Each structure stands twice: as structure tokens, then as C-alpha cells.
Amino acid sequence: MTAVEVKELRKEFPILSEQVHGKPLIYLDNAASSQKPLQVIDAEAQYYCHNHSNVHRGVHQMSQRATEAFEQAREKARVFLNARETAELIFTKGCTDAINTVAHGFGQTLSKGDEVLISHLEHHSNIVPWQMACQRSGATLKVIPMKADGTLDWSEELLTEATRIVAVNHVSNALGTINPVERIIADAHAKGAQVLIDGAQSGPHMAIDVQALDADYYCLSGHKVYGPTGIGVLYGKLDRLKELPPYQGGGDMIKEVRFEGTTYAEPPFKFEAGTPNIAGAVALGAAFDFMASVGVERIARHEESLRKMGEEALMGIDGLKIYGTAENKASVISFLIGSNHPYDTGVLLDQMGIAIRTGHHCTQPIMDYYDIPGTARASFAAYNTEEEVLKFVDGVKRVAQMLQ
């Protein structure tokens, strides 16, 4: 995107005109959560002002309108992920909820002697649910090792006849590494194992085609793709979803309830117990519209340009080290300045109006691998500019001087 196009795009994001400590906000914490364009904000307000009612349960017009808006959002999710049909798309609270849905249900099919394979690069939300599933079932949790550059040390030999499922992220939130998920999926399927891909960090930065990937499960978080918080999407192949036990019970996920027993509804409703986040789903649909209008590939090229520009400039700062140097990366720069704690870097940059993320990024095993407490992480989105990158680099230079 050109500088003029980005400038026009920024007008759609009201929060970008905010000031922090008396300085214009430079928001570089997009891997944690992206900001929201007016069409997303307006979609949620429009729903509450004109269409609010419960879905799937009423014959009155308001309920019909709410149901139509909700299901239109599901169709937009289908298009965004290129799923075969809307029955394969479940609305969740986000990726954590989606992974727990699969881990809890799939965990009921595990037993002693089975193996679950995850990677060293996982967010805690793709570690803890599988630990819990293995603890309940007696299955064994195995880990794909990582290399010093932040890539996975993948080998099909990690798969055995006992491997039941592989759960890996598409993109590392801590290091930006884009993992070879196509190869992992193909190798796992050749061994008869299923695969879940955590797409929290890939959804905002690349076009996703779940049919081409052939993953059994794929999840997205709405708040990372310019949508609202508390909403996400779990894709599952329809035959997998029919086999998967539901995570929660309650209203709207049943076909028939008797005290003697209950029969469940067909997917996706089988996994959507209770009143869903209707407004969040509608606004998420608007976020998908926004990304389509800008162009996911255009966004990716713009962000890649900003990342490379930032990395090249930061490398000239004495004592600064970048963590995650994979050739294939998304728009994340994780770094430390000498032996200084990342919190110090984050606090000082905040005083300059620059928002970054500091800490272990819910990836403590990665930080343990490097023997560090955490990193400072800058991450870019469609609305960030080259000028902001330059100001960020200048800010880091000032911090380095202050922390000498």
C-alpha cells in the first residue's frame, strides 16, 4: 500500500487519533490485539440499535432479523477461510475457547498409550488444554523441538503409530515464525493422525484456505483480525465435527432432551450452547468485509515491508538482539537491549507514546529455551506507517542510551 493509501485507511480507526502521555499514539501491539475500524464499531452498534433479539428461537421478526445477521456472519467466515460449508464454522470466544473445545472433546477419545504432539513454539492456550487432556486420559504429550533461529526442528520421525493428533500454530506470536504447516499436516495424515492449526496470528496477515491446507481443525480470534473481543471461529471438517463430543451442554445445542438422555444438534449448533455473542459475530463479519476490501495480500506486503525496515534499522543499535530470525516470518520483531529487562524498555517507550508488548507473551517455554525473562515485541498492522517505524526505532535508540 502507498503512504497515501495508509493515511486514508487510518481515518477509519478512531483510536489512532488518541494521545498517550501527551504524544500521538503509535500502536505497535497488534499481535496482542488489533484496533477496530468504524465499520466494525458501527456494525455492533447497528445490531444493538436495530436488530437485537435472541437467535434461532423466535418466530417474531426481530428474532428472524438477528438470526439472519448472525448466519450471514457465519457465511462471511466461511468465505474468509474458504471452508466448504457453513456447518463447518463454529463461533467461539476466540482461539483459546476453540482449542479447548477440540482438546476437551478429542481428549475423551484418548487413552493410555496414545500420543499428542505439540510444538515448542506454542502459545500457552495450545499447551495447557492438551496437558489437561493427557492428564485426564493417560495419554503422552510430546513436543516438536525448536532451533535457535526460532524455527521448528520438524521431522516426520516425530510421528508414531501412537500419534492421535498434532496441534501447532501457523505463526508464532512470540517470534513471528511461519511454521511449515502444509508439510506437518501431510505427514500427520500419512500416519493417520488428525491436525489442529492455531491460526490466531496467521489470520490477520495471510490468506487462509482450509481446503488447500487440509487441516482437520483451524481457529481464528476475532480481535486480532480487526474484529471485536470475545468472538472467534473454529473450523472443523464436517465429519470430524460430527464425531467430536461437545464441549458444553445447554440450550440451542440439542435436538431432543429427555431425562433419560439427550440427542445433540448437528454441527455447528452442537458446539454453540447458550445464547451466543451475536453482536460480536455480526461485527466480526464486518471485520472480514474490511479485510477483503483492503486485500489480505496487500496488507501482508505492507506489513512485511514495515518489519524488514524496522529490523534493518534496529540491527544497528549496539547491544540489541532480535529473537526469531527465521527467513519466513510474519510482522513481529522481538528483541532485548543488552541485559535490560523488557519491561523497562516497554515503560520508557510508552512515555514516548509508543505501545509495544513486553514479557513472555504466554510462551514461557520459548523464553526458557533462550534463558531470558521475556522480550520486547513490536508488531505491525495495515494502518501502521513507515514514519511510525522510524519513530519507534528512534525511541529504541533513546531507550538504549538511557539504559546504558
Describe the SSE topology.
Layout: H1 3-10, E1 19-20, E2 23-24, E3 26-27, H2 38-51, H3 61-81, E4 89-92, H4 95-107, E5 115-119, H5 128-137, E6 140-144, E7 163-169, H6 181-190, E8 194-198, H7 210-213, E9 217-221, E10 232-236, H8 238-243, E11 254-258, E12 261-264, H9 278-294, H10 296-314, E13 320-323, E14 332-337, H11 342-351, E15 354-355, E16 357-359, H12 364-370, E17 375-379, H13 386-402
Parallel strand pairs: 3-15, 5-6, 5-7, 7-8, 8-9
Antiparallel strand pairs: 1-2, 4-10, 9-10, 11-12, 13-14, 14-17, 16-17
Helix pairs in contact: 2-9, 3-9, 4-5, 10-13
Offer a few descriptive terms.
single chain, 404 residues, alpha/beta, Aspartate Aminotransferase, domain 1, Aspartate Aminotransferase, domain 2, 2 domains, 7-stranded mixed β-sheet, 4-stranded antiparallel β-sheet, 13 helices, 17 strands, globular
User: What is the H/E order?
Assistant: HEEEHHEHEHEEHEHEEHEEHHEEHEEHEH
What gyration radius follows from the Cα positions, in whole Å? 22 Å
Instruction: Give the helix proportion (percent range).
Output: 25-40%
- Runs in which pLDDT lies below 50 for 5 or more consecutive residues are none
CATH class of the largest domain: Alpha Beta
Give the overall form. globular
Helical segment tally?
13
Give the mean pLDDT: 97
Class by alpha and beta content: alpha/beta
Largest sheet strand order: 4-10-9-8-7-5-6
Q: Please describe the biggest sheet, giving its number of strands, its sense, and whether it closes into a barrel.
A: 7 strands, mixed
CATH superfamily of the largest domain: Type I PLP-dependent aspartate aminotransferase-like (Major domain)
